[in-house]
Design brief:
Chain A: The active site is at residues 45, 56. Chain A: Pathway: Amino-acid biosynthesis; L-tryptophan biosynthesis; L-tryptophan from chorismate: step 5/5. Chain A: The alpha subunit is responsible for the aldol cleavage of indoleglycerol phosphate to indole and glyceraldehyde 3-phosphate. Chain A: Keywords: Amino-acid biosynthesis, Aromatic amino acid biosynthesis, Lyase, Tryptophan biosynthesis. The structure holds 2 protein chains of 2 kinds. By secondary structure, chain A is an alpha/beta fold. Chain A contains 12 helices and 9 strands. A 9-stranded parallel β-sheet of chain A has the order 5-4-3-2-1-9-8-7-6. The longest helix of chain A has 14 residues, at 128-141. Chain B is of the alpha/beta class. Chain B has 17 helices and 14 strands. Chain B has a 6-stranded mixed β-sheet, with helices on both faces. A 4-stranded parallel β-sheet of chain B has the order 7-6-5-8, with helices on both faces. In chain B, strands 1-2 form a two-stranded antiparallel sheet. In chain B, helix 10 crosses helix 11 (238-244). The longest helix of chain B has 16 residues, at 24-39. Classes of the chains: A alpha/beta, B alpha/beta. The A-B interface holds A 50-55, 57-58, 61, 65, 68, 73-75, 97-104, 124-127, 130, 148-151, 153-155, 158, 173, 176-178, 181 and B 16-22, 24-25, 163-164, 169-170, 173, 176-177, 180-184, 279-284, 291, 293-297.
Amino acid sequence: MNRISDKFKNNKKLLSIYFTAGYPKLDDTVEILQQLEKDGVDLVEIGLPFSDPLADGPTIQASSQTALQNGMTTELLFRQLKDVRKTVSIPLIIMGYFNPILQFGVENFCEKCAEIGIDGLILPDLPLAEFEEHYAEIFKKYGLLNIFLITPHTSEERILQIDAASEGFIYMVSRASVTGNSAGFGAETEEYFERVASLQLKNPQIVGFGINNSETFQQATKHTNGAIIGSAFIKMLSEKGKDGISAFVNSIRKV
Amino acid sequence: MNYNVNEKGYYGEFGGAYIPEMLYPNVEELRQNYLKVMAEESFQKEFHQLLKDYVGRPTPLYFAKRLSEKHSTKIYLKREDLCHTGAHKVNNTIGQILMAKRLGKTRIIAETGAGQHGVATATVCALMGLECIVFMGETDIKRQAPNVARMKMLGAKVIPASSGSKTLKDATNEAIRDWINNPLDTHYIIGSVVGPHPYPDMVARFQSIISEEIKVQLNEKEDRENPDFVVACVGGGSNAAGAFYHYLNKPEVGIIAVEAAGKGIDSGESAATSALGNTGIIHGSKTLLMQTPDGQITEPYSISAGLDYPGVGPMHANLFASGRGVFISVTDNEAMQAGLKLCKLEGIIPAIESSHALAIFETRKFKKDDVVVVNLSGRGDKDLDTYINYFKL
């Protein structure tokens, strides 16, 4: 069984953290991963920085730009992660935009991921139809899960389609928004969480976008299997650096 | 080979809709409706009425006698510079605002580089009484103050894009992010034949009025529908798409696209995508774009803000890759000189974008009886400052 699917077996509400590789410092990647595992984070999305991150708000845009200025590249990330499985055992997902992966070569990229022990990919701008037609077989060959997104405006028909094509989990975007919106969740979001829960999908769901503290984590995981924190974690990193990780993770977990 | 879009939204291997799921409902709504709406008789009637009475179409196809003598060939200029708002951009914004109304949208967003598309969008929003928000790079806001003022006078809100390099590419990113944040009431009027399918095809269809008129006008003047060559500048490529449209599948018509070489192809300051780019994904479309080996999109440069885009539309990528179109690039200086030449010989001050197309005659010799149509996409009023500084006028 894949490390990701394994995580969902005991019904815990999973905490997932997103951070941009190469931020705040170029060589922070592995140390951040080790610290996150130590602090009990369940899975991690490693962000591959891109010059034009369409679905991201100002925080992740800025961290991506800094990471690129620091010198982060796809090749370098793979070099940094080469031995990561000697010290980190939680599921690792690479999240990024499709263009850098296309330039690296999709098959090369997947092969590298498999060598390192990456469990899955989240590529927001690689749509379902393109994936299935051109890339699904390559992912399968290298044992990589492709995680798809759904949003409050995704039709029921399409949610079912995405569920059928998914493995691991479904990434539920909490609201019609780019990342880093901290307006809190209203009744409309609650209704969306309930609606998706009632569909009894075969894949577990993890909520992302807009989760920034223990309160929003509780709300997001009431009807789902976990939540992802990105912008709020990056904000903390830019203020406190790696030393702030433990306190941040603990503050989310406290009830 | 067919050079139009196929049913999956591709031109050859280029095109498609590489968009985050958040945009899927909006783009899918458009994809399912755009051809149906455009085929409606009431839509066609309103579109053509506005093009006639409001934009001032048909624009003339003008035989440039002195320019022709100078270059020993027959040169016709398609006078898109005479359109209301000063360029071909308004053909598309009229079409898209009518589309937005039929889809029940009440809020319009757009990106702009030099401000021409922003002005054309603000204009049609004023005409239809719809809210208008234009994203413009902070750098461009500073260098295009008159167009910013125009948009404001027309009632649009201009929002500075302060991410990345603060130019057209970033303005487009900001517009897309706004659309993600406002998926229900908002229509995004993209200004060129770029973006996810169906945008490249929809914009090309609205701009195809250019070559539709050329066919009729050339028939009157030369007793033939087809020129030997049709020439247009390409940034994203909307004026070129319109000028080429009805000739795409007529191999007897030579298609020439002129890109901006900036300070020279090898100078590191250029926007000649066909020479410097390779296949990738920009703004939701698989196409040719300028990027680093690591897949980061690079900053283009051209003296002409309208050509200052790191990609080309997928139709053009396919014309280039298939060899159907001839792609050349001209430098800032070649374009500026060609623009000045048109002023002196024909009494027409062209937009610097269009000056790039005119520079074809400096780099390529045509036969004496060749009929060459150049799409004069815009007028030079907006570029006066640049002309003044360049020629120390």
